[in-house]
Design a protein that fits this description.
- The complex is a heterodimer of chains A (410) and B (510).
- Chain A is α/β, with parallel strands linked by helices.
- Chain A has helices at 15-28, 52-60, 65-69, 105-114, 126-133, 158-166, 264-278, 287-312, 317-329, 342-351, 368-387, 392-403; strands spanning 7-11, 31-36, 49-50, 75-77, 79-84, 87-92, 153-155, 172-173, 184-187, 196-198, 207-212, 215-221, 226-231, 244-245, 248-250.
- In chain A, helix 1 runs parallel beside helix 7 (264-278).
- Chain B has two domains: 8-51 and 164-237 and 323-386, FAD/NAD(P)-binding domain, CATH 3.50.50.60; 96-159 and 246-317 and 414-510, FAD/NAD(P)-binding domain (3-Layer(bba) Sandwich), CATH 3.50.50.
- In chain B, the strands form five sheets. In chain B, strands 5-4-14-15-16-13-17 form a seven-stranded mixed beta sheet.
- The radius of gyration of chain B is 24 Å and the shape is globular.
- Classes of the chains: A alpha/beta (410), B alpha+beta (510).
- At the A-B interface, helix 8 and helix 9 of A face helix 10, helix 12 and helix 14 of B.
- Bound molecules: flavin-adenine dinucleotide (FAD).
């Protein structure tokens, strides 16, 4: 029997490295040391969107929503507004509509749409109207409609998050000839483009995504400034290669430098750390665990790449297959991945304007008049709930008060 | 866009598969313009076996809206907490594969890693002692999960049923007929195909009646009347992995209170099942004809019954495997017509159920989109492969070398999937479940531990807790599980109180 891992070294000076250091130290109780090649953190707007799932995982690691809300610049968000070819659609976090009679809501919506319904899919989430009218409320029991509960994320300033995580943690400098003493070495060195800022835009609870030819342009509003990100296709040399060999594993950008959607960058890193903890080997780094890590990771990255390719007009056979099936009958095959799920494909595809030609015939278990009635009633409830969300500015004032920082305003 | 909905479905076969499909469709398509007919032949009959289930059956019953106690009474059912494997690892050894978890996970690490840590330091208590279902099964106890007891093992008791297959089909038939399914008695003699697209156009009975439909479901059993005899789909033979190819089945008198579990006892060229019901016990001997003659197999079966045999054994011959396509053109095969794997883990009825669920998701219209059909076939094959690998694990990981059959089993081929699972467990006790895999982490753990696979290490994070802390937590869990088991009534008392079958039914069926 070999001995367990006692010391982990993390290489990197960016947010991904400090996030890894924080999560691993909190969740494993092992000795975690970070080695940094630079004193100025490498920061990227890619890390400024925290999805509801990422918030949950950070909470699990001991970083509460309250903590994050208190960081300078933090701004709650309900999702994204997407513009493509002159059309604007919303993609709120969380579910839209309710599954009736055992059939996914989007099938019922498709059926109604083919019958002339003009209301967009996203309008069946309270977040939709809130995004349009600049209102906000965090999800809680009072704004739940049966099983339908909207979700919220957070825009954070990467520098503020970096400072919070790096607090009281000293990185060791990397110098030539340094011999890192650790059982496991995690490479989290990012190739970051730096932060691009725009003129302060309107303070709103969503990011703005604009699909341009072969590129996605994203504006992420914070309190006091807006960050900009341009997401372009990867260079043809960006292959998906196994990130773990021997006692060395790369994570985040160091593992795969391909383009990533806002929100997915942090989610991906947290997923990698979760998998690493789950499959933590002993000090000998047995190949059984590393092979399993690589197998799962490669599958996840291929799915991420496929989803991203929808936005960048690049050839991706996996994406074409998913899209073809979806466009035919609104079905997405069940996936083994957890970063990109079936419902992610559905919401992204619909937000990009890919409307399936057919719906699931089982939707007809609700007859036409019943479907119309159910949709009408649901829409009414959704609108009533979102109409009760306070204006965003009022919500932010309330947050400031609760956090005891009345001087900051929206 | 024009959807051309399916207007008529004809199911051929009235065994468990046929009536489960008819019942589910009659419920799901209620208030819908779909004509459902089922053709069956009393003259041919059903296989009449298939009496042990797994917990997923509860979901099927719930979907149908069945009252559980009424269902148990009508099918002479008992409760099932797992499967006991006697003599599988070696003669004289036995273990239970329970429908429940071991201990409780701590700090995001699966419980058994804590146990492994202690074990590697000489701790003597075996893993099964940490599972409520194991204790309850051993002591003949049963209780349904206690509502609002989320923090107690009593709040999470997973269970299934053992029932009379004939009564189950009858129960579902009454259900489906009450919801408008038309039952047609007769023997299908001919089938005819559309000349343009090769789809099945109609089936004709011995007496000349002819039935056409938009969509056919083949539930005709091993013969695969539509999928094979009409459409010549082809069969994938899996005998290299699972060589047993015959079974003898016989009911016997009940001589004692029914166990709340199914038993599988290893025999020189296969294994014997024991399924206790309220009114009788189901028994069978699954064996490989390369290594045992039929008369020897029958003698072993009859010599090892607890009570008197109630009739002569019936013999069933099978080839483990599956149709090359489960869904071909406008014919979908469900049940034995789709494929078969021996009932070692009671999976066949579940495969019927999941086939129905998948069909509902991918229900076609009259254009029969090839992508939907391909997807159904892909998902079904994947499910079959995962089940196969789990079954192979039982045979391959044996220490037995006392017969030619068991020596052959030790060298059965392994798929990459199984090899990976074994390697991960052997090194640090990792158990992983693929997303759509039927058997969960507990199942894999139970069988790997039961068959004697011993990990070299465990999750490293357990070590950081400290030995005293680990030991204290184990002792505490042990005492909670012990106390929970003591709280459970005896299985027969629970049945008597809630769901005993009527006495007249009892005598009628013995
Ligand atoms: C030995 C053995 C043990 C098993 N144990 C278990 C178990 O413990 N748990 C479990 O889940 N599963 C078990 N199974 C599997 C289970 O029995 C079957 O999955 C289940 O009974 C479904 O069978 P079926 O309906 O597909 O076929 P059958 O029961 O064979 O039904 C076929 C139907 O088709 C009809 N038919 C056939 N030809 C014609 C024709 N020409 N015209 C009209 N009708 C026709 C027949 O009359 C019958 O109604 C076991 C199987 C075997 C062989």
């Amino acid at each position: 029997m070999t001995r367990p891992i006692r010391r982990i070294a993390i290489l990197g000076s960016g947010l991904e490295a400090v996030l890894a250091e924080f999560v691993l130290a909190q969740r494993t109780g092992l000795e975690v040391a970070r080695y940094s090649e630079s004193n100025t953190p490498a920061l990227s707007a890619a890390h400024s969107v925290l999805t509801p799932q990422a918030l949950q995982q950070l909470e699990h690691a001991g970083l509460s929503l309250r903590d994050l809300l208190g960081l300078p610049g933090s701004l709650p968000t309900l999702g994204a507004r997407l513009s493509k070819e002159g059309q604007t659609r919303c993609r709120p976090f969380g579910p839209c509509g309710l599954d009736w009679a055992g059939t996914g809501f989007h099938h019922h919506w498709l059926r109604a749409r083919h019958g002339g319904l003009a209301v967009p899919y996203a309008a069946f989430s309270p977040a939709y109207r809130a995004m349009q009218e600049n209102r906000f409320a965090p999800p809680d029991r009072r704004n739940r409609i049966g099983a339908l509960q909207h979700e919220s994320g957070l825009h954070v300033h990467p520098a503020a998050l970096f400072d919070r995580l790096a607090q009281a943690r000293q990185a060791h400098p990397i110098h030539p000839g340094l011999d890192v003493d650790a059982d496991l070495i995690i490479d989290a060195r990012e190739v970051t483009p730096g932060l691009e800022r725009a003129e302060t835009g309107i303070v709103q609870p969503c990011s703005e995504w604009t699909c341009e030819v072969g590129e996605l342009h994203v504006s992420i509003p914070l309190r006091g400034e807006t960050l900009e990100q341009r997401i372009a296709p990867a260079s043809p040399t960006t292959a998906i290669l196994p990130p773990w060999t021997g006692n060395r594993v790369s994570i985040g950008q160091a593992a795969h430098a391909g383009p990533c959607l806002p929100g997915l960058a942090v989610e991906r890193l947290l997923f990698e750390l979760d998998l690493l903890i789950e499959l933590m080997p002993d000090a000998a780094c047995d190949p059984a665990e590393t092979l399993e890590y690589n197998r799962i990771w490669i599958e996840e990255m291929k799915e991420v790449d496929a989803l991203v390719s929808l936005y960048l007009d690049v050839e991706n056979p996996r994406a074409s297959e998913r899209l073809q099936m979806f466009q035919h009958r609104g079905y997405v095959r069940s996936l083994d991945t957890s970063l990109v799920t079936e419902s992610d494909w559905i919401s992204h595809a619909l937000a990009l304007g890919h409307i399936p030609r057919h719906h699931d015939p089982l939707s007809h278990r609700l007859d036409d008049s019943r479907l119309k009635l159910e949709l009408g009633q649901l829409l009414q409830k959704v609108n009533t709930v979102s109409g009760e969300f306070p204006p965003f500015a009022v919500y932010l004032e309330a947050i400031d008060k609760a956090l005891g920082r009345a001087e900051e305003t929206a | 866009m024009t959807v051309k909905p399916i207007r008529s479905v004809t199911i051929v076969g009235g065994g468990t598969a046929g009536w489960m499909t008819a019942a589910a469709m009659s419920k799901i398509f209620a208030d819908h313009d779909l004509k459902i007919a089922l053709i069956e032949s009393e003259q041919i009959g059903t296989v009449g076996v298939g009496e042990a289930t797994i917990p997923q059956i509860l979901l099927f019953n719930r979907m149908l809206g069945i009252d559980e106690n009424a269902f148990i009474k009508a099918t002479q059912a008992t409760f099932k907490l797992g499967i006991e494997f006697e003599g599988w690892r070696r003669q004289g050894h036995s273990y239970l594969h329970p429908f429940g978890s071991y201990g409780s996970d701590m700090d995001g690490v699966m419980f058994h890693h804590f146990w492994l840590n202690a074990r590697q330091r000489g701790y003597e208590v075996e893993l099964p002692e940490f599972c409520l279902q194991v204790l309850a099964a051993r002591e003949g106890r049963f209780l349904r999960p206690v509502p609002n007891a989320k923090n107690s093992p009593l709040g999470h008791i997973a269970y299934a049923f053992q029932f009379d297959a004939g009564l189950y089909a009858k129960y579902l038939r009454d259900y489906a007929e009450a919801r408008g399914v038309e039952r047609i008695e007769g023997r299908v003699e001919h089938t005819s195909l559309h000349p343009e697209n090769g789809h099945l156009a109609s089936v004709s009975l011995q007496d000349g009646r002819e039935y056409s439909a938009d969509f056919f479901i083949d539930c005709s059993g091993f013969r695969g009347l539509l999928i094979e005899q009409a459409l010549e789909t082809g069969y994938e033979d899996w005998s290299d992995w699972l060589p047993c190819n015959r079974a003898l089945a016989v009911p016997s008198e009940r001589v004692r209170a029914p166990d709340p579990f199914t038993r599988s006892t290893a025999r020189p060229a296969g294994w014997q099942w024991h399924i206790p019901l309220q009114h009788r016990t189901g028994n069978g001997h699954v064996y490989c004809s390369d290594h045992m003659r039929d008369d020897e197999a029958a003698a072993i079966l009859l010599d090892n019954l607890e009570g008197r045999a109630l009739r002569d054994p019936i013999q069933l011959r099978f080839v483990t495997g599956h149709r090359r396509k489960f869904w071909n053109r406008n014919v979908l095969a469900i049940g034995l017509a789709a494929g078969f794997m021996e009932p070692l883990e009671s999976t066949s009825i579940h495969l019927i159920q999941s086939g129905i669920a998948r069909l509902m998701t991918l229900f076609p219209d009259r254009s029969f989109n090839p992508a939907d059909i391909e997807e159904y076939n892909r998902l079904t094959l994947q499910e079959y492969e995962y089940v196969r690998d789990f079954l192979v694990l039982h045979y391959r990981q044996t220490e037995r070398d006392d017969s030619e059959f068991w020596r052959r089993c030790r060298n059965l081929p392994m798929t990459d999937h199984l090899a990976r699972k074994l390697e991960l467990y052997r090194t640090n006790g990792r158990v992983y479940r693929e997303k759509d895999e039927l058997f969960n982490e507990t199942s894999w753990l139970a069988v790997m531990d039961g068959q004697g696979v011993v990990p070299e290490g465990h999750h490293p994070l357990v070590a950081s807790l400290g030995e005293m802390e680990v030991d204290a937590r184990l002792e505490q869990i042990l005492s909670v599980i012990r106390a929970s088991a003591d709280h459970m009534p005896r299985h027969e008392e629970f049945i008597a109180q809630h769901c005993a079958a009527e006495p007249d039914l009892l005598s009628e069926n013995v």
